[in-house]
Amino acid sequence: MKNARKLVLVTLSALAIGAAFPYVNFALDQxxxxxxxxxxxxxxxxxxxxxxxxxxxxxYGAAKGMVAELDDFSQFMEPDVYERVKSDTEGEFxxxxxxxxxxxxxxxxxxxxxxxxxxRAQMLPGDKIIKIxxxxxxxxxxxxxxxxxxxxxxxxxKITTAREPEDKNSDWVQKDLTxxxxxxxxxxxxxxxxxxxxxxxxxxxxxGHVTENVDKALKDLKGQGMEALVLDLRYNPGGLLAAxxxxxxxxLDGNKMIVYTKGRKPENYQEFRANGASPYEGxxxxxxxxxxxxxxxxxxxGAMQDNKRAVIVGERxxxxxxxxxxIPLSDKSALRLTIAKYYTPSGKCIMHDANNEHGGIYxxxxxxxxxxxEKKLIQQSDDIYYPGKDGKEDKAxxxxxxxxxxxxxxxxxxxxxxxxxxxxxxxxxx
Length: 430
What we know:
Oligomer: single chain
Number of strands: 19
Structural class: alpha+beta
Strand content: 15-25%
């Protein structure tokens, strides 16, 4: 077998190096023995399995198995998956309308997008997609899972979801869904004025053009009289490191640290700092996070918190602090490998530790939302962001009566108003 021969040649070369440098003999001998097991398994399957097997599939399977031993975020990608990841930069696609991540080895919903098939099917953050077309998603590469969920608009996809019950002693509730894919238009920034002085920006995801969209939102809100800002990063799964750094620079001045990375190799240490004056360095700000705020969301939150630039309100965040490097391989496949971790300016690694139950960004003010309220907030989100659209003002006004209160957002507004009032207090003259 061609691939097996290549592997044997590599191990023989390693042994030759070991002969020239005796101090590495022991390590190389161990490596040879480990690789020999893989070669033996490949050859035994090729020669003895009941049906002919494509050797390439075996090699890819072995690679996926190795990477699966590392973490939820390192991935081996076959050529077609890697090609899709490279070219997947469009703002719209055929799908069911959810943002997902891997949690505990399962494909997990971060949030459904308003007015999409997933949203209408009442899928919720935290729901696990345990099957796609009857096949388990356990330990499935996230890019493979997304590929299975996406497709031509109008086609259907069958999924099975599992939802954690409110009674922790009960079994997870499973549900079979058949959803029709639609053209999904992804918006990464939404904004509006909450009152005459308080602006609101929701960053949905740190994808392409998010920095310029946030800049546009800030200028628009400033023109409407904004004197304070609520930055909503709830349900934001993250995205581009560069975007998180650039958005942080909008609010941090001088040479303040935003985030740094550190890995096993010295070259993986890298600092990201603000550079000079920022346009909104004096703007009072509250940031909202919850347990689904991850990665780039946590970089921004951590930078603002450690630099005492904003108050963080909500729940402890997800705890995804790993840096992945995309490494192309010779046959056009690729390895996405965790090479470092993010650290906040004060040196905290926020990576989630399931065993010790710590990690993530801890809010300065914790506000927990009951699951039922959270569900209603998600379902009404389209009305919140677009009241009265398409000329249906009366219908929107009627719906507004039934809206549940967003206590996290309300607390943020109260804090900004209190700051404004306290800032105007002066001792009375005697």
